[in-house]
Amino acid sequence: MGGVTRRRFLQIGGTLSMGAVLAACIGGGSTKQSRDSSGGVAGRRADATILRTLSSVEAVAVVVYTRTLDAGLLTTPATQELGTLFRSHHREHGELFARTTADLGGRPFPDPNPVVLQQLQPALDSLGDEAAALRLAFDVETILADTYQATMGTFADKSFNVAAMSVGGAEARHAAALAQALGSPAAPQAFETPERAVEGGNGV
Amino acid sequence: MAQTSGDADLQAFAQSVELALVQAYTEIASTGKITSPAAVDATTTIAQHHQEHARALGEAAGARAPNAPNHRLSNRFRSDLRTASDETAAIDVLLGFENEAASTYMFVLGSLEATPALQLAASILPVESEHAVVLASLVHQPPARTFPSFENQDEAFKPDEFPVS
Hints:
With 204 residues, chain A is mostly helical.
C-alpha cells in the first residue's frame, strides 16, 4: 500500500475510518461506511489491542521463515520461492497492522508475540530438515488463519471484518500450499474453524 | 447483534452462488473433460464442499433461501466452461470461479451485521481460497498469481448483477 493511497483514505470524512485504510489494500471496501464507524475511544482502544496482537503474530511468522531460509532448510527451489514470498506477505501484513494501530492512537507492537514464540521455540530449536521446517511453517500459517477468523464479531469498527479476512484468506492459501508440500490435503474440510486462534491481547 | 433481514438476503445470495458452483462442477464432470485422478479427486471434493456451504447458508437464510442455483451465474459458468477444450483449460476456468467465490465472501463480509453470519462467511472464505490453491497447483500456475498478499473483492459476484433467481 503506497503512502499516497493510505493518506487519501485517512482523509475520509475528517474522521479516521480504519477499515477504509485497509480497504486501500484490498479493493472495494465496506459497503457500509459511516462518518465514524470506529466505536468511539473505547472501541478504538479495543481494536488497537486486536491489531497489536495481529502484528505480533505476523512477526512470529517472519521469524519462522527467516530462520528456515537463513538455515538453508528449504532446499527445493519451489519451497524456497514460497518461503520467500510468504515472508514478504507477513512483513506487509505486520507493517500494515502496526501503522493502523498507530492511526488508532495505540502503540504498535512490531515484535514477535512472546507467548506464541515461546510455544514454538522447541520446534524452532529442533529444526533439522525441510519437512520439519514446512511443518512448523504450516503450524504458524494455521494459527494465523485461525486468529483472523476468530476476530469476526470482535471489532468495534465493523469495516475491520473485511480487512481481517482479506489477510486471513491469504494465510489460508499459504497453509494450503504448505500442506501440499507436506503431502497432506490442501483443503481437507468444508469449513475452517478458529480452534488455534491467538486471543486478542494475548502476549501484547 | 441479532441476525438481520439483510444478513438473510446476503446468505440467500451466497447460497445461490454455491449451488451454481455445484452445478458447474457437476456439468463439467459429465463432459468427461476431467480425467486425471488428481483432478477428479480435487473437483469431486470441492463440489462436495460447495454443497455443504449451500446447506449451511440455506439453514442460516431460512425462508429467504432460494435452494436453487443462481440462474444468471449458472449461465455464465456454463458459457465459460464451454470454451474449455481439455482438462487443463477446464481446471483453469474452475480456478477462476474459486477466486471469484473467495472475492464474493469478501464483499459479503462488508455488509453482514450479526456475529454468527460473519463467522459463517469467515469459515467459508478461506476454504474457497484453499480450493483456488488446489486447482492452481493442478495447472502449475506461478505462485505470484496464486498467492495475493491480500484477498480482495474486485472479482466478487454482486446481487445486483446476479440476482437470486
